[in-house]
Design brief:
Blueprint: H1 2-13, H2 34-48, H3 54-59, H4 63-73
Helix pairs in contact: 1-2
């Protein structure tokens, strides 16, 4: 799952692959602002065939949070 998330981050948001770790903070470490977060959510929904609600998106702080959310929806 981490590899799929990395691919989405690199392709959709243009994040540096080396910076993506489970502990990486989306805003501080990966420079993902609110607009990029919405784009990320859309890409993750497509990649994993899930729905991410706005409230859930607002709670995502780290890459691990993304993995946990996806795991809870599969």
């Amino acid at each position: 799952m981490l590899e799929q998330i990395k691919n989405v981050l690199v392709e959709a948001i243009n994040v540096d692959l080396e910076a993506i770790t489970p502990e990486a903070k989306l805003n501080e470490d990966l420079d993902i602002d609110s607009l990029a977060a919405v784009e990320l959510a859309l890409e993750l929904e497509t990649e994993f065939d899930i729905r991410i609600e706005d409230e859930e998106l607002a709670k995502l702080v780290t890459v691990q949070d993304i993995m946990d959310l996806i795991a809870s929806k599969q």
